[in-house]
Every structure is written in C-alpha cells, then in structure tokens.
Amino acid sequence: MNVKIEESWKFHLQEEFEKPYFKELSTFVKSEYQQFQCFPKGKDIFAAFDHCPFHRLKVVIIGQDPYHGVGQANGLCFSVNDGVAHPPSLVNIFKEIKRDIGIDPPVSGNLERWAKQGVLLLNATLTVRAHQAGSHQGKGWETFTDAVIKTVSEKKENVVFLLWGGFAKKKGAKVDKNKHCVLTSGHPSPLSANRGYWFDNKHFSRCNDYLVSQRIEGIRW
C-alpha cells in the first residue's frame, strides 16, 4: 500500500501497511471521512510521524484519541492548532513544565515545535468522528500504534517514553527498559491531576537529564 507518511517511517513500517488489518483499517477510515466529519484533516493523520522522522526520534509521548471538537486536532497527541484554546490536559502539561523547569506557558498549544525536536506525539487511535469520542477505536489503529512502539523499542536505543495514565502505561508495557528510559505518572487530565497523580512528576527535567546523560541534546519544552 502507498501510505503517505514520512520516508524514514515508511521504511520501518512498510510491512505493517501490507497486512490485512491495515488494509481493512484504510477502507474504514476512507469511508468515515467520506460520510462524516472526522478529525484530524486527512493530510494530518500521520502528522506525528511527518514532523518527527525516525532517525531524529528521542522521546515518545502516548495519548489515546484525537480531540473530537471542530478545529482542535492536528495529528499530534495533546496538541491543538494555533489559535485554539488549550484543552484542560494541555493546560496542566504547561503548568507542570512551569513548576518543573520554569518555562511560562506558550500562547499556542501547537506542539509541532516539540515534534520537530524529536518528540513523537503518538495517539493510540489516529482518527475520530466529530463529537464522538472513541468512535474509531477497535478498528485497527491500536494494532498499528502497538507496532510503532515495538519498532521504536527494538530498533532504537536511549529513547525516553513518557507514559501518562493507565492507558499509556499499558500501551508502553512492552518497551525494553534495559535500552530505554520509561517514566510513568498519572494523566494530566483535571480528574487525575487534582487527585495528586500528575503535578510534580518532573518528567520534563528528568527526560532531559536522561538525554544529556546519553550525550543527546535535550528538548526545549
């Protein structure tokens, strides 16, 4: 299959694109986009990969679903398009960055600047129907993103995996901790953060400390 995705990822994932489940997934997604309003835009479905080539990858952050409100999703987990109000989880991410390393929250919630530095902002499910959270779950995306995580774990070294909340922890459970740095905490959603499971995890400084210890340039959060 000819999937429009950044070339270095295409090289590593080509076998996945040829599997029956992915062909069924592609048929489903095309049908959904033809019949309903879906997010992100078609050109942004693989944006997480397009902005973060495989050879530049340093950090993986795992989300669940794209935002399902109009104009929010841009293909990067937790990220929103320029000019869109910051969703509650993103607000708490920026608050923790301020507490941890003193950087003030940016005006834009677009995290492309992280991706371009080597942060793979990977949702488990890459598409969603407008206003219907979880509507594209169980159709094959999870199998694909499991394969992505497995590929990174096997073929890279010294990647930092930031696993926030129970879902992300399960998704990243098979990452080889002998080769990579795995940091876990509660989810940045208000429900989790207000119970004390998110703030002061210091993941952003700990991530950079690890990268620097491996002689890899840290992320400008």
UniProtKB/TrEMBL annotation:
Entry keyword set: Cytoplasm, DNA damage, DNA repair, Hydrolase
Biological process according to GO: base-excision repair, AP site formation via deaminated base removal
EC number per UniProt: 3.2.2.27
Pfam families assigned: UDG (PF03167)
Reactions the enzyme catalyzes: Hydrolyzes single-stranded DNA or mismatched double-stranded DNA and polynucleotides, releasing free uracil
Domain of life assignment: Bacteria
SUPFAM superfamilies per record: Uracil-DNA glycosylase-like (SSF52141)
CDD domains named among the record's database cross-references: UDG-F1-like (cd10027)
Subcellular location: Cytoplasm
GO MF, one annotated term: uracil DNA N-glycosylase activity
Domain Uracil-DNA glycosylase-like as annotated: residue spans: 50-211
Keyword hit for Cytoplasm: yes
Similarity field: Belongs to the uracil-DNA glycosylase (UDG) superfamily. UNG family.
Protein name: Uracil-DNA glycosylase
Species annotation: Kordia algicida OT-1
